[in-house]
Design goal:
GO molecular function: protein-macromolecule adaptor activity
Distance between the termini: 31 Å
Low-confidence stretches: 1-24
Structural class: mainly alpha
Strand content: under 5%
Main location: endoplasmic reticulum
Keywords: Endoplasmic reticulum, Lipid biosynthesis, Lipid metabolism, Membrane, Steroid biosynthesis, Steroid metabolism, Sterol biosynthesis, Sterol metabolism, Transmembrane, Transmembrane helix
Membrane topology: Multi-pass membrane protein
Radius of gyration: 21 Å
Family: Belongs to the ERG28 family.
Mean pLDDT: 84
């Protein structure tokens, strides 16, 4: 089979995807791809809602009792955790939660999608720096859980970003 020029494929308004052991082009393979894309984005939306709800719970916990942070997250130097730091952490978590929930509601809003992805990148950088740079957190389950959530979320959102790019191209073609 000859190499495929993706520009000519997009120009003809079809989508190439692997179907079994052959490549397909046309309405059937495009609809299967769009169906797969839609399912993935729905799973991603559900994930974002779940992460958002958990973050709201962490926000409440940060405002209720700051010892939660020193016992679960910042176990390396728990004496540095005080009420002000816990409330600041709670506000950041609340803001992240609202952004992530908003993205789940309007997942095709690319600006909101990028901001949501950025919240996970910032969270990952924060927890990694607390463990490896500042030493205020030890690699316990309390830190590993948010690191895994941020990592899986970043991976899922990067995959979803490709679907959004394809979706934007197909929406522009429908307008023309």
């Amino acid at each position: 089979m000859e190499p495929i020029n993706t520009q000519s494929i997009q120009g003809r308004g079809c989508c190439f995807i692997a179907v079994g052991s052959r490549w397909g082009c046309g309405a059937g393979s495009r609809s299967r791809y769009q169906s797969m894309m839609s399912r993935f984005l729905n799973v991603l939306r559900s994930w974002l809602v779940m992460v958002s709800i958990i973050a709201m719970g962490n926000t409440l916990q940060s405002f209720r009792d700051h010892s939660f942070l020193s016992e679960k997250l910042y176990t390396g130097t728990p004496t540095l955790v005080n009420g002000l730091q816990a409330r600041t952490f709670g506000i950041w978590t609340l803001l992240s939660s609202v952004i992530r929930c908003s993205c789940a509601i309007d997942i095709r809003n690319k600006t909101l999608y990028h901001i949501t992805l950025l919240t996970f990148l910032i969270a990952l950088a924060h927890f990694l720096s607390e463990v490896f740079v500042y030493g205020t957190a030890a690699p316990t389950i309390g830190v590993l859980a948010p690191l895994m959530v941020a990592s899986f979320s970043i991976l899922g959102m990067l995959i979803g970003l490709q679907y959004l790019d394809v979706d934007a191209v197909s929406r522009n073609k429908k307008k023309n």
